[in-house]
Specification:
B: alpha+beta; five-stranded antiparallel beta sheet; 12 helices
């Protein structure tokens, strides 16, 4: 499955780049994120509970490793997720482009393999579910960005 | 496969069902035919702690037609609507769409309200409800509200229903004079989930211009999608083949952002959306003209 798109974040690129490395922020942007800790070598490990529609939220353990970083422009992620109802693994490329007015355009492209029961039964819905969760995650990231700018930006609102 | 264990309630009245929902809310799922929920439970993808079976709530299974249109209880079986001359007269688009839903065995058990509340993006009834501007009556123990279809479907298998609320009735407005309708879909086999489907409802004014155009597409997004840009090209115009083609192209390129899967790529879905929208509009307008002359 390929998930590709772009999303405008209302804040400067440097701040976005920092947020992408902050596990306390990322856990809030992962749909159903329960915990996330930063290990060695830019590796993050966590747990999320994911459920869409009739699928009862199920626990997945997730490992994300950041690599090939070009701060603050682009990075790659290796993603590995496992749960009782299925698994996913793959890579994602993220690019941050400065926009006029201090905004940042995030371009992303992920190639993910999804397997297990969830893929066998829900194949026709994976793409829509991935788009749905990506949008939820990016909207949450934008909210965290606004909170960061409001809190640490010296009176910016 | 067998489902995970659950607590089973079978209320005999609506009040009883609403009380159970009020008490158990998010842990409970109403069972309204079970043609989607039970398979998901058997695969153990859905694991509701409590099921509230609405099968015995007779007051939710009814069909009446009046000057305002057709009113359907949420537990009305899809097959009963399909076989109803009353439904054929009062809501011809709905009636014509029903045979496209899965198979007769499934329509024997599947209910109108169950399909709407499930909100599968590939389901026919949500798109038809949207095209017909149906209103959905929702109740909870201590209140009730009417929700227009356009506000009821909020995303992927998501609706405006809160955990305490139950969909109890659907009101389909009577088609105005000079109205036409059509439903088109493509599935690999009859009864499979449609790759793309289109429900169309149009009304002409006395000069033969499009007064109202509603196009709802299914299987092209997170829920049923109203093709507003396509409709905008037609409203106020006397329809022509070129205009229909332009509207169909707008539906396929501007109104939707379809997903891809092993059955159909996004590009193929756009192609289907253009062709099916053109056919649905053409047939709807023919019917509206027949009724106008």
């Amino acid at each position: 499955m390929i998930v590709v798109g772009a999303f405008t974040l209302q804040g400067p690129r440097g701040v976005v780049w920092d947020l992408l490395h902050d596990p306390d922020v990322l856990v809030k942007t992962l749909p159903g994120g329960e915990r996330l800790i930063r290990g060695a070598d830019d590796t993050y490990e966590g747990v999320m509970r994911v459920g869409v529609g009739p699928v009862t939220a199920a626990e997945f353990s997730v490992t994300v490793r950041l690599r090939d970083k070009v701060p603050p422009e682009r990075l790659h992620m290796d993603v590995d997720g496992k749960g009782g109802i299925g698994f996913t693994r793959g890579t994602a490329a993220v690019e941050l482009v400065e926009q006029a007015g201090g905004a940042t355009l995030m371009k992303y492209r992920a190639e993910l393999l999804v397997g297990g029961r969830i893929a066998a039964v829900g194949q026709r819905l994976l793409d829509a579910a991935a788009k749905h969760m990506t949008r939820l995650g990016l909207e949450a990231l934008n909210r965290e960005l606004q909170a960061r700018l409001a809190g640490g930006g010296g009176g910016a609102s | 496969m067998k489902p995970a264990s659950f607590v089973y309630h079978r209320p005999a009245t609506l009040d009883e069902a609403l009380a159970l929902l009020a008490d158990h809310g998010g842990d409970a799922k109403p069972l309204a035919g079970g043609q989607s929920l039970i398979p998901a439970m058997n695969f153990r993808l859905a694991r509701p702690a409590i099921l509230i079976d609405l099968d015995r709530v007779r007051e939710l299974a009814f069909m009446t037609a009046g000057p305002d249109g057709l009113r359907l209880g949420a537990m009305t079986r899809q097959r009963d609507v399909e076989r109803s001359p009353l439904a054929a007269r009062a809501a011809p688009l709905l009636h014509e769409t029903l045979p496209f839903i899965a198979h007769p065995q499934i329509r024997n058990r599947g209910t109108i309200g169950g399909s709407l509340a499930h909100a599968d993006p590939a389901a026919e009834l949500p798109a038809v409800a949207l095209a017909l501007d149906a209103r959905l009556h929702v109740r909870r123990r201590d209140g009730a509200r009417w929700i227009p279809a356009a506000e009821f479907f909020t995303g992927l298998f998501a609706t405006a229903l809160t955990p305490e609320e139950l969909l109890v009735e659907v009101a389909v407005p009577a088609p105005p004079a000079h109205s036409g309708w059509a439903f088109e879909e493509v599935a690999r086999r009859h009864g499979d989930y449609a790759l793309v489907g289109v429900a169309a409802a149009v009304t002409l004014d006395s000069q033969g211009r499009c007064e109202r155009v509603r196009l709802a597409l299914l299987s092209v997004g997170e829920g049923p999608v109203l093709a507003a840009q396509a409709a905008g090209l037609l409203v106020g115009q006397v329809p022509s083949a070129d205009l229909i083609r332009a509207a169909a192209d707008a539906a396929a390129t501007s109104d939707i952002d379809p997903p891809g899967d092993i059955h159909a790529s996004p590009a193929y879905r756009r192609q289907l959306a253009a062709v099916l929208t053109r056919r649905a509009l053409t047939r709807s307008l023919e019917r509206a003209h027949e009724k106008a002359t």
